[in-house]
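To whoever is on call:

I kicked off a structure prediction for a single chain this morning and the downstream step that reads the tokens threw a length-mismatch warning. I double-checked the sequence; it's 222 residues and nothing unusual in it as far as I can see. Pasting both halves so you can look.
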Amino acid sequence: MINLGPDVIPLAASAIESSIGSHAGHEYNHAGQLCTAIGRIGGQAASDLLLKYFSLETHIWEYELIRAGAARGLGYLGGSQVIATLSEYLKKGAKTDEVSNAIIESLERLGVKPPLTIDTLVKDFIESELVKGEPDFKRFPANLIQFPKTKRAVAWWQLGWAIREDKGDEEKAQKCFVKALTLHAARDFAAWSSLRPEIEWAERSTRTIEKLKQKVGVIVDD
């Protein structure tokens, strides 16, 4: 396909369009691969098309496969608009690891240092601290201070899950979830459901958080 040059881009775009709304995951995966190939063809038409697919807002979860493919394709094109678009999306927070990784891969290909994000901070802390017998949890909030409370809450929730899944340390995981709730107390925040036992909807309040702080504790104070 790449050897056919720009003339094939409209055909590839038609195939991508036909996959959107499909109920078959493999069609989204194939469309994502087409996006990457379009980027390797190059040219303004390729750039315009991939920016469109990368930025498209949709509730279709499988569409993230197309977004990831578009991100990889944009990494072969470059340009100030591409770099700005990828960087801003990464800072905002991608829905899936595949999209995040594709953006980081493309920015690095373009010689741009990816912006610091909650996901990368959590990943770095897991790789540098959780391997230790006694992680230095005081390092974590210092790195998060630049982010709003809601994002810091998500970071502590993600860290709690990593501690539960990778280390099997339920006590520290619970303290991370409580820490997350001190920063973001919305009833629909996932940290409520991560607690053991799970807190019922009607009981999700700042008063309950204060009780949890006394009973469970928080992993560290800011």
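Update from on-call: the warning came from a stale cache, not from the record. Cleared it. Sanity check on the structure: The chain is about 65% helix and 0% strand.
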